[in-house]
Amino acid sequence: MQKKGANISLKGYDDIFSTDQSRAEAQQERVQEIPLSDLHPFEGHPFRVVDDEEMLKTAESVREFGVLTPAIVRPDPDGGYEIISGHRRHRASELAGKETMPAIVRDMDDDAAIILMVDSNLQRETLLPSERAFAYRMKLDAIKHQGQTCGQVGHKSRDALSDSDSGRQIQRYIRLTELIPEILDMVDNGQIKFNPAVELSYLAREEQQDFLSAMDFAQAAPSLSQAQRIKKLAQEGECTLDAMCEIMNEVKKGELDRVTFKTDSLRKYFPKSYTSKQMEDKIIQLLEQWQKKREKSMER
């Protein structure tokens, strides 16, 4: 015979005195102030956090107004929290002398965290080709882990991977992750253009090392046509250092009537964070100012 009261379960103090509304609110995400020392970067994230001019401006804004958009973090089993979105805000808070920053704590598995981490950073206007390339690759892998096949990802890549780049362009960015670091750095600083870099990514790593020697020998960056011919040599098993040197040493159309400067010779005049495009824009701006001064002096 069942004892009287055997089915009665004792509830805790919070369960007895809380309401349905308060319990629902407790389940909702909320902004918390978390010590900076408890926050650490997302493992393997491809986005660079550098103390450049833009970062210093962000730090000054944080110093004056605080962090206006909370970071998104997830609990780390080893302690503290892993930053999913907010790496730059975290660094800016450190530079601003803050001890905490606002963040939303969210439980997420690795794949969901990677997708959110990539999406939140792809919105930035200034992304290096290498950052975009590794971000797309990380997100593609995460999407595959979630159950989509390679074919599904390929057909839906515009929606699944990016709102701005086409599926073909995304795959071309991902090709850049096959480049050796030395060549990828040249793509980031503008020494090698994007399209030739994609062609060079099909070379084996040893062939890419030889290509650097050929590029140094010719003291020139590859055109798209040159990179395509070098890729063809690699596919035919004839990609030797001598063959690449011969291709790279060709005089490109239009070079005879062109003035060029080596990036290294100009780099000392600009902040380290400047890209080749920023240096070019600044040089043009200074030349325009110089021309105006000459025109004014000639009018006198």
TrEMBL record:
Domain ParB-like N-terminal: 32-122
CDD domains with a match to the protein in the record: ParB_N_like (cd16407)
Transmembrane domains' residue ranges: none
One Gene Ontology term, aspect cellular component: chromosome
GO biological process: chromosome segregation
GO MF term set: DNA binding
PANTHER family per the UniProt record, alphabetical: CHROMOSOME-PARTITIONING PROTEIN PARB-RELATED (PTHR33375)
Stated name of the protein: Chromosome partitioning protein ParB
